[in-house]
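Q: Structure for this?
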Amino acid sequence: MARRRRKELSDRQIRILEVLGTFQSKFGYPPSIREICDKANISSTSVVNYYLDQLEEMGYIERDEGVSRGIRLLKPAGSLAGQFQGAVRSATQTAQNVGRAIGEMLQVPLMGRIVAGAPIPVPPSDFSYFDAESMVDVASSLLPSSEKGTNLFALEVQGDSMIDAMVYDGDIVIMKPANEARNGEMVAVWLKDRDETTLKYFYLEKGRVRLQPANRTMQPIYIDDPSIVEIQGKVIMVIRQVHGMVV
Amino acid sequence: MARRRRKELSDRQIRILEVLGTFQSKFGYPPSIREICDKANISSTSVVNYYLDQLEEMGYIERDEGVSRGIRLLKPAGSLAGQFQGAVRSATQTAQNVGRAIGEMLQVPLMGRIVAGAPIPVPPSDFSYFDAESMVDVASSLLPSSEKGTNLFALEVQGDSMIDAMVYDGDIVIMKPANEARNGEMVAVWLKDRDETTLKYFYLEKGRVRLQPANRTMQPIYIDDPSIVEIQGKVIMVIRQVHGMVV
DNA sequence: TAATAACACGAACATCCGTTCTGTGTCAAG
DNA sequence: CTTGACACAGAACGGATGTTCGTGTTATTA
């Protein structure tokens, strides 16, 4: 279990942690020791090195020996930004309590939109993610571990046509390329006879396909000919950024 | 003859961009030029430098002259976005993310569950993070910049009672503590007369409160006495992890 | 075919940067 | 007072790193 730690952080330790976070978010790379000197008003590199060793010992940061700017901030960033002692104290406790490295993040390419009237844009196998319009950052801790390796992609939902899948206009769906599905998985399917894309839970039952809306109050679709149902991908996650709604 | 074809990235340019992304997410800081040499199978530092200059010219990256590892990976869509496909513009806007500080993540405490029959557990002001059941990692690039500093918290939705807010059993809602709301914001409210928690879009109209379901097919609730409506927080984001559904 | 631009390589160089060593001052315990 | 742990400063060393230069190669163009 987590051991209780008596010691609190000194002013300079806190200052250095702040500098690490600020610098990283400002420049995109960690500061050098001499740059920490400047920002933290410390006149000697050895002193900064001295405290960096302490902070690593305490688990706040991780250092790569001999590597310039080889510092990783392990605690959640931004949380101890400029408040007073109390705020810093609780942030301190947080970091100690958490005590683990910040999780990895997956960058998922946003391939386009998903609409009812067209098949979804699926990345080709030789896809280089730099062709994507944009990237969506997803914490890999929120993904099933089995899906992390695969080439996920993201789509923005347009219109209310996916409403019976509990997916709304503006939502972002994280998808995994797939041509077939197991029963109970949510898939994006292209219904050839209707020229229509939809999100449904998939079931194959005695040669017949049942497409079940996530909204249980709605009725399923039954399709006798499975070849009409073209699976385009499995839905892994739905993200909705809620902003003001003008009605 | 059309000598000017569409700008495409060479193999080595793509490879270098991939290395930049991979290395950054793996080590937390950008690679040195020599490290790019290794990862991209290029034998000379000058070649890497040559391509880095090109990539900066094209707007894919940003370099800080003379500083080690002074490379920022920018988003690829930015520079060429104006030319084609206005169709995907809205998608780009919705999920627009960063450039700098790739890999920043917010750890949001999961405070408990939100159910219809009880007020939501809001973290007290002196909240120490010890009471949290666990943490939810959220990519800060997905959050509105105005909300990043505040003390967000997360709740897991239990039951289908929030279904008219397009929020489903098992969803995770990211919330911001609030006692009041502006028109059009989605809030968690405690209705005193009904002993009920619900998620709705909030409107105050001539002394009367209108609570609008996100699902536009459903009717709003009108409440003449605003004191009955107790706002408990604003909804910032909804995350749904889709897994197999057993029906 | 010749000329030119784009691509590639390796070496050399001046900084940048992490690390280490020495020294100074403070403060509390013995 | 002595001792030792601690905080801090400055300097110096060596490796890491960005930059530049000269040259060779390949592809494109006139």
